[in-house]
């Protein structure tokens, strides 16, 4: 029923291709997941959770639409809305020094807050929020993507099962997720790890690199585990006190992290004082992508994903 157009991304568990429906000529993003890879890394891969989030989130403006889910002997398939405006990573890649001004960073961070809040209300934690998973639609507004690391959370906001391996991407993973490896399954995922990721994405938009970036994965992990002493701000950058305060209150231990009492804690922070939360999606975005055709992928920096 679908014809291949081009590959958009390759990840640890499969690929995302742009395809065209032979019947209605619609263009979609098809995610193909290897059953073998999913079965051998069950704690890190969450196909059923990803499908369920897309189904449950069908009325959320922050989650891409799901059109079909099916399987064959070797693979599982998800056919989703193709969000052609690119992603936050690609947009930053085209900016001078890979940064945006504070007003633009505030806009994208605010929309990401609303997207994460919607996901948590559905009963899931994302566990892999990052610029590559923050899509931009044709008007430049955010849609959260790639729910393949999602986990169910209970009424208290905690994951129903403990983790024995860290889940997420190196530069954006929260310290409590890394504790899974240290304590042999003693770490519990919660919505707090998504608020940590929000802090890393905000920092990257304002400073050009994630806050604990280094040349090696072990060094990055060590910096994250000692986040209180390793979080630093370049004083030469034009970043407000309110922005730095928000990042300090997100990039900290989960016990004291902003958002523990819900998204309203973050939405009430001084950094977001100018945000009209009820109408932000009707406002003009800082960047409006140019889309030349329904299958235009030029807004994406295409490459392999490194799902550390």
UniProtKB/TrEMBL annotation:
<dbReference type="GO" id="GO:0005856">
    <property type="term" value="C:cytoskeleton"/>
</dbReference>
<keyword id="KW-0547">Nucleotide-binding</keyword>
<protein>
    <recommendedName>
        <fullName>non-specific serine/threonine protein kinase</fullName>
        <ecNumber>2.7.11.1</ecNumber>
    </recommendedName>
</protein>
<dbReference type="Pfam" id="PF00069">
    <property type="entry name" value="Pkinase"/>
</dbReference>
<comment type="similarity">
    <text>Belongs to the protein kinase superfamily. STE Ser/Thr protein kinase family. COT1 subfamily.</text>
</comment>
<keyword id="KW-0418">Kinase</keyword>
<dbReference type="GO" id="GO:0005524">
    <property type="term" value="F:ATP binding"/>
</dbReference>
<dbReference type="InterPro" id="IPR000719">
    <property type="entry name" value="Prot_kinase_dom"/>
</dbReference>
<dbReference type="InterPro" id="IPR011009">
    <property type="entry name" value="Kinase-like_dom_sf"/>
</dbReference>
<dbReference type="GO" id="GO:0031032">
    <property type="term" value="P:actomyosin structure organization"/>
</dbReference>
<keyword id="KW-0597">Phosphoprotein</keyword>
<dbReference type="InterPro" id="IPR000961">
    <property type="entry name" value="AGC-kinase_C"/>
</dbReference>
<keyword id="KW-0067">ATP-binding</keyword>
<keyword id="KW-0723">Serine/threonine-protein kinase</keyword>
<dbReference type="GO" id="GO:0004674">
    <property type="term" value="F:protein serine/threonine kinase activity"/>
</dbReference>
<keyword id="KW-0808">Transferase</keyword>
<feature type="domain" description="AGC-kinase C-terminal">
    <location>
        <begin position="273"/>
        <end position="308"/>
    </location>
</feature>
<dbReference type="GO" id="GO:0005737">
    <property type="term" value="C:cytoplasm"/>
</dbReference>
<feature type="domain" description="Protein kinase">
    <location>
        <begin position="2"/>
        <end position="272"/>
    </location>
</feature>
<dbReference type="InterPro" id="IPR050839">
    <property type="entry name" value="Rho-assoc_Ser/Thr_Kinase"/>
</dbReference>
<feature type="region of interest" description="Disordered">
    <location>
        <begin position="287"/>
        <end position="308"/>
    </location>
</feature>
């Amino acid at each position: 029923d679908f014809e291949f157009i081009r590959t958009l991304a390759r990840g640890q568990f499969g690929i995302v291709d742009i395809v065209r429906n032979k019947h209605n000529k619609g263009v979609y993003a098809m995610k193909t997941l290897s059953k073998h890879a999913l079965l051998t890394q069950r704690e890190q891969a969450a196909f059923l959770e990803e499908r369920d989030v897309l189904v449950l989130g069908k009325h959320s403006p922050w989650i891409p639409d799901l059109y079909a889910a099916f399987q064959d002997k070797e693979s599982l398939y998800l056919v989703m809305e193709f969000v052609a405006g690119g992603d936050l990573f690609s947009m930053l890649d085209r900016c001078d020094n890979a940064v945006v001004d504070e007003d633009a960073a505030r806009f994208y961070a605010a929309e990401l807050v609303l997207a994460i809040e919607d996901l948590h209300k559905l009963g899931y934690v994302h566990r892999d929020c990052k610029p590559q998973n923050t899509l931009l639609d044709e008007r430049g507004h955010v849609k959260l993507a790639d729910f393949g690391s999602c986990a169910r959370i209970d009424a208290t906001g905690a994951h129903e099962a403990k983790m024995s391996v860290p889940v997420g991407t190196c530069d954006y993973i929260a310290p409590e997720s890394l504790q899974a490896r240290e304590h042999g399954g003693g770490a519990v995922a919660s919505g707090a790890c998504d608020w940590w990721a929000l802090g890393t994405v905000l920092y990257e938009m304002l400073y050009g690199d994630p806050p604990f970036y280094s040349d090696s994965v072990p060094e990055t992990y060590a910096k994250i585990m000692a986040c209180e002493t390793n979080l630093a701000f370049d004083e030469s950058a034009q970043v407000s006190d309110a922005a730095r305060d928000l990042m300090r209150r997100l990039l900290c231990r989960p016990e004291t992290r902003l958002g523990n009492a819900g998204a309203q804690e973050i939405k009430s922070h001084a950094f977001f004082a100018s945000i009209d939360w009820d109408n932000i999606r009707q406002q003009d975005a800082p960047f409006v992508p140019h889309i030349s055709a329904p299958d235009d992928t030029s807004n994406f920096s295409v490459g392999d994903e490194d799902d550390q």
